[in-house]
Amino acid sequence: MQELIDYYKNVNFAVTICDKNAVVLYMNDKAKKTFERFGDVIGKSLFNCHKPESAEKIRHMLATGSSNAYTIQKGDVKKIIYQTPWEKDGEVAGLIEISIELPENLPHFVR
Q1: C-alpha Rg value of the chain to the nearest Å
Q2: Does residue 2 carry a pLDDT above 70?
Q3: Which residues contact 92 (CB under 8 A, 6 or more apart)?
Q4: Rounded to an integer, what distance in angstroms lies between the CA atom of residue 11 and that of residue 2?
């Protein structure tokens, strides 16, 4: 039997996964560090660490299967946040959020 590998454990971007009830199932090391001010949130609701407007977007994504993408800046750090549903048996089973720090001079190519 092949060993289960946590491919996201030490990557340089944050990965958070929740179930259809917005309960956190998984956070990689980068996500845990980013949200350490909330303590260990695995097994707890995402709604405990989001503003009401964000919680409403999460509910909408879970209900409709839609995705959400935006950029943020905290101090000198810019990030792109991408949230998208994951499915099980053809039904929305939860959300995956990926947060990537953007370099100061991010190249853009039109192809």
Answers
A1: 15
A2: no
A3: 20, 62, 63, 65, 85, 86
A4: 21
